[in-house]
Write a structure and sequence with these properties.
heterodimer, A: alpha/beta, Nitrile Hydratase, Chain A, 2 domains, two-stranded parallel ribbon, B: mainly beta, five-stranded antiparallel beta sheet, 2 helices, Elect_transpt_acc-like_dom_sf (chain B), CN_hydtase_beta_dom_C (chain B), EC 4.2.1.84 (chain B), lyase (chain B), nitrile hydratase activity (chain B)
C-alpha cells in the first residue's frame, strides 16, 4: 500500500514519525477546557490566541544577533545594555513585553553560560523558543556540575585561565550572553556582524562565527 | 565589600525556586534586583507580597567540594531574601 510506511524510511533516511494516536493527558484536556471557557466568556478569542502564537514564532535569535552586533560597534549602547538590558533592547525597538533581561559578556578571560535548572527559563520574548536540548534534564543538571565538560561537548574548550561563570536562571531574570567579537571583523557593518552571532553563542554554549 | 550570605538549609514542601543543590551553600551578593512577588505564594494563586531578590555568586569549589576542578569558576543564581542569612564566617 502506498501510504503504509511501516518498516520504511523517509527520503532523508530517517524513520517516519509515529502518528500521535495516544489519548489526551489530564493537562492537555485541562488546557483545552480552560481555553474554550475563556473564549466562551469573551475574555480572549481564537484570533487573539493565533496572533500571539504568530508573534512568538516571529521572535528568533536574529533579534539577539542585532543586539549583539550593535553592542560590538556602539560603545554607548554597549554601556546601556550592560546597565539595563531590558531598557536597551526596548529602545532598539524590540517588543519584549515584561521580559527582565541581564546581559553578561564573554571576554578573553571570562566565559558565561546560561542554564535554568528548575525548568526552562529563556529570554523567549527576545530570542524566541529555546532549543529542545536546553530543556533536557541532562543539560540542566550537568551544566551546573560540569560546565567545562558540557562546553567541550558543544565544541568549546576553554583554557584553565578563562574563568567560567554559570548563570542559573532560577527566578525572574532572563539572560543573554554577549559573545566575544571575533578577530578579523574590523570594518564590518552591523548587519554583516549580526550574521556571525549564533543562537548558541548567546546561550554561551557556542562562540561567534569567524568571518 | 561584597555581602556574604548563606542559603538557608530548609526543605519546605511545595513550590520553591531555590535549587536544592544550593541549600546550605555560602556565596556573595553579586547584585540586588529589587522586589518581586513571592513565587511560593504566586504558585497557589495567593496574594504574593513582593520580596527582595538577589543574584548570589557561589564558587564552584564551595558548592561541589574542594576536589572540584576549576574551583574558582562561579555560579550565579537568583535567590529570594527570605532564603538568605548572613554568613560572615564563610571563607
Amino acid at each position: 500500500m502506498p501510504h503504509d510506511h511501516h518498516d520504511s524510511l523517509s527520503p532523508s533516511g530517517h524513520p517516519y514519525r509515529a502518528d500521535d494516536d495516544t489519548p489526551l493527558s489530564y493537562w492537555q484536556t485541562m488546557e483545552i477546557a480552560v481555553r474554550e471557557l475563556l473564549v466562551e466568556k469573551g475574555i480572549t478569542s481564537p484570533e487573539e490566541i493565533a496572533s500571539q502564537i504568530n508573534t512568538m514564532d516571529a521572535r528568533s535569535p536574529a533579534n539577539g544577533a542585532q543586539v549583539v552586533a550593535r553592542a560590538w560597534t556602539d560603545p554607548d549602547f554597549h554601556a546601556a545594555l550592560m546597565q539595563d538590558a531590558s531598557a536597551a533592547t526596548r529602545d532598539m525597538g524590540f517588543d519584549i513585553g515584561p521580559l527582565k533581561l541581564i546581559a553578561v559578556e564573554n571576554t578573553a578571560h571570562e566565559h558565561n553560560i546560561i542554564v535554568c535548572t528548575l525548568c526552562s527559563c529563556y529570554p523567549r520574548n527576545l530570542l524566541g523558543l529555546p532549543p529542545d536540548w536546553y530543556k533536557s534534564r541532562a543539560y540542566r543538571s550537568r551544566t551546573v556540575r560540569d560546565p567545562r565538560g558540557v562546553l567541550a561537548e558543544f565544541g568549546v574548550t576553554l583554557p584553565d585561565t578563562t574563568r567560567v561563570r554559570v548563570h542559573d536562571s532560577t527566578a525572574d531574570m532572563r539572560y543573554i550572553v554577549i559573545p566575544a567579537r571575533p578577530s578579523g571583523t574590523d570594518g564590518m557593518s552591523v548587519d554583516e556582524l549580526a550574521k556571525l552571532v549564533t543562537r548558541d553563542s548567546m546561550i554561551g554554549t557556542g562562540v561567534a562565527r569567524q568571518p | 565589600m561584597m555581602q556574604k550570605v548563606r542559603v538557608k538549609p530548609l526543605m519546605p514542601p511545595g513550590h520553591v525556586r531555590t535549587p536544592h543543590y544550593l541549600r546550605g551553600k555560602a556565596g556573595v551578593i553579586e547584585r540586588s534586583l529589587g522586589a518581586f512577588p513571592n513565587p511560593e505564594d504566586l504558585a497557589y494563586g495567593h496574594d504574593a507580597p513582593a520580596l527582595p531578590l538577589h543574584r548570589v555568586r557561589f564558587r564552584m569549589g564551595d558548592i561541589w567540594g574542594p576536589d572540584t576542578p576549576n574551583p574558582d569558576d562561579t555560579l550565579d543564581a537568583e535567590i529570594y531574601d527570605h532564603w538568605l542569612e548572613p554568613a560572615d564566617d564563610a571563607p
